[in-house]
Amino acid sequence: MHSELIEIRTGSEETVVDLTTRIERFLTDAGAGDGLLNIFVPHATAGIAVIETGAGSDTDLLARLRELLPADDRWLHRHGSAGHGRDHVLPAFVPPSTTIPVIGGRPALGTWQSVCLVDTNIDNPTRSVRLSLLQG
């Protein structure tokens, strides 16, 4: 098994960060063949999504999350910035991990799919993402 912890700078705004290029680099460096790649964000307030990016879907996702999980004072979990409790609910909707197949050293994603970090927590500007490759 090959594993690496990468650091992603998310800044101070809600964001969707495309990890696909970093994943491809990891697979190349690991000398990947066929296997499974697990992508895991070890944070209680972020998630991993497989979505299309660059055509508005990432912006749409953040807009829908704002509607579903508003940053206001309704949340019992209260520390950090206003509405931070909603960030702790996010992983129930955007899970903290996903596993994708790797074929011939490449992520077996669909034509328009990208693997993305989804982060609505504006209090943590840097995130870690664990990439773990299991080869057969």
UniProtKB/TrEMBL annotation:
Q: One Pfam match, by short name?
A: YjbQ
Show the Gene3D superfamilies listed in the entry: YjbQ-like
Supply the SUPFAM superfamilies for this chain.
YjbQ-like
Query: Looking at the record's lineage, which domain of life comes first?
Result: Bacteria
Q: Which PROSITE patterns match?
A: UPF0047
Segments forming a coiled coil: none
**Similarity field:** Belongs to the UPF0047 family.
The record, for PANTHER family, names:
UNCHARACTERIZED PROTEIN YJBQ-RELATED (PTHR30615), UPF0047 PROTEIN C4A8.02C (PTHR30615:SF8)
Return the NCBIfam families for the record.
TIGR00149_YjbQ (TIGR00149)
The protein depicted here goes by the name Secondary thiamine-phosphate synthase enzyme
